[in-house]
Amino acid sequence: MELFEVSADVHALIEDLLPVVNPSARFEPALAQVVLPVGRFEPSATTWTILERCARADRVAWPRLVEEWLIYVSDRAAMAIGDIELLGDVRKRLRIRMVPKLTESERQGLAIVSAGRHFDAMIMIDHPQYGGPLTLARASLLGLTDLGKLAVPNTYQVELADVDVHDQPLTLTESIRVIHKPGSRYVSALVAELHHFLADAGRPGALVAVPTHSTILAYPIVSEAMGAVFGPFRELTKEMYAASDDPTSPDVFWWRREHALVKLDPDAGVPRDPSPPEPKRRSRLRFRR
User: Fold this and answer.
1) What distance in Å separates the CA atoms of residue 284 and residue 141, rounded to the nearest whole number?
2) pTM for the full predicted model
3) How far apart are CA 119 and CA 128, in angstroms?
4) CA–CA separation, 283 vs 281, rounded Å?
5) Residue 205 — left, alpha, or beta (φ > 0 → left; ψ -120 to 50 → alpha)?
6) CA dist., res. 288 & res. 150, Å (int)
7) Under 8 Å CB-to-CB from 222, ≥6 apart: which residues?
8) Is residue 176 a contact partner of residue 167, using CB atoms and an 8 Å limit?
């Protein structure tokens, strides 16, 4: 059956059952939504889902389907408000965190997008007790949409606005660049913005590592000493990765402007005469709910 054919009868069932299932809720037929007051909040649920279910089911099953749906949206509203009470304005807590590429099964249910061949960009809720990776179910529960438009500025313009960038000695003659914010779990997100920190890197590019989520290491390849730097650079990366309680990746990458990161073979180092690199795919980190 078409939705318009069932809407009048299903909406009538909602009006009959709502006082029994959730006496504090109200139905707004003009907007086709149920309003579910919880304390000072008034989340709502459109009837689109239940209309679709009833359109596919026998009419005799409609009362049961409507009752189950009303119980579900009532419980969901209470859970959402519980999260809001714990977290405050969740939209302000969204952050981006780069993680090594996950498998398809690991990605299931998470608010995550690909950030190239080696990393995924994961949306996090930043809270010391109740935070963690944002799941699609939780995003739906909290009514969060346009996740990228929230998490990207929160991360780059707020969280990392005061990130420290300095050079420090690695060998007797060579220094590396350290991009760091003590205690932050999101500096790894800057792996997508390295061009801002490597303006002095010429055509050969730079060695890059993300050993922990609070630190990125980089060595602009501007010297013939690069071959002697790779070993110490790799060892420092491995040491930081092993010692961290929030590690990211033990790998070393080759970065070049407008090209994708290349993971380097620990034994081979940076190629002297590389084949043409894979073009970098431009991405706006388009997260979907």
Assistant:
1) 25
2) 0.70
3) 24
4) 6
5) left
6) 12
7) 200, 201, 202, 204
8) yes
CA distances from 272 to 38, 164, 224, 255 (A): 64, 32, 11, 14
Instruction: Compute φ and ψ for 255, nearest 5 degrees.
Output: -105, 135
Q: What DSSP state is assigned to residue 10?
A: H
User: Which strand ranges, in their side-by-side order, compose the sheet holding 44-46?
Assistant: 26-28, 33-35, 44-46
As a whole number of angstroms, the distance between CA 59 and CA 53 comes to 11
CB 148 within 8 A of CB 287: yes
Q: Is the dihedral of CA 59, 61, 66, 67 positive or negative?
A: positive
Q: How many CA atoms lie within 13 A of 224 on its CB side?
A: 0
- What token pair was written down for 237? 């990366």
Calpha distance 160→29 (Å, rounded): 46
Q: What is the pLDDT of residues 259-275, one digit of tens each?
A: 899 999 877 656 554 44
Question: Tokens 């008034």 correspond to what residue?
Answer: 42
pLDDT in tens, 38-76: 766 677 888 998 999 999 999 999 999 999 999 988 887
Q: 3-state DSSP call for residue 67? A: helix
d(CA 289, CA 286): 10
80 within 8 A of 142, measured Cβ to Cβ: yes
The β-bridge partners of 169 are 175
Residue 8 burial (10 A CB sphere; 0-12, 13-18, 19+): exposed
Burial of 260 (0-12, 13-18, 19+ CB in 10 A): middle
